[in-house]
Write a structure and sequence with these properties.
Blueprint (H helix, E strand, L loop, with lengths): L8 E5 L5 H11 L9 H9 L6 E6 L2 E10 L4 E8 L8 H15 L5 E2 L7 H9 L23
Parallel strand pairs: 4-5
Antiparallel strand pairs: 1-2, 2-3, 3-4
Length: 152
């Protein structure tokens, strides 16, 4: 299996021309996401807040991965780390996370948080291999605005 270093993999901030590739990636990777995670809505929201932390991984002009990061002044968060299935286990996700972490550190972020669905053991193992630990906290959420009455 090839390693990410063997490819012409490049990470850069999202460009409008990435939209179709990002939407296709997220719809396949995050199938069944709640309505507030509609890809076009997420793209629009992230482009308006810390857009330089909306990172796209490209391989020969093809979107093969993404990660969204943000810092609220207290904690950093990562969302939508995704890599196309045929490019997984080649180091692309690690490179995307490395770049997101550098961006957060540059903003003065002291701690990174993220959420993983409990059924996704492979993803939990990936993050644990990077030094993340499952914490003894309860994650609470509340949909706002037009999503307030959705049950997800």
């Amino acid at each position: 299996m090839k390693d990410a270093k063997d490819h012409e993999f490049a990470i850069r901030p999202y460009l409008a021309s990435d939209q179709d590739g990002v939407v296709a990636l997220w719809r396949s990777t995050f199938a069944g996401d709640p309505p507030w995670n509609e890809p076009l809505d997420v793209i629009a929201r992230k482009r308006s807040v810390q857009s330089d932390l909306f990172l796209v991984g490209n391989l020969r002009d093809r979107v093969v991965g993404t990660v969204l990061a943000g810092f609220d002044g207290v904690r950093g968060w990562v969302h939508h780390l995704a890599v196309l299935p045929e490019f997984r286990r080649q180091g692309f996700a690690s490179l995307l996370m490395d770049r997101a972490e550098v961006g957060l550190l540059e903003l003065g972020c002291p701690k990174l948080n993220l959420q993983v669905r409990p059924s996704n053991a492979d993803v939990v193992a990936f993050y644990e291999s990077r030094g993340h630990r499952v914490e003894d906290v309860i994650s609470l959420g509340k949909p706002l605005g037009r999503w307030h009455h959705d049950s997800n």
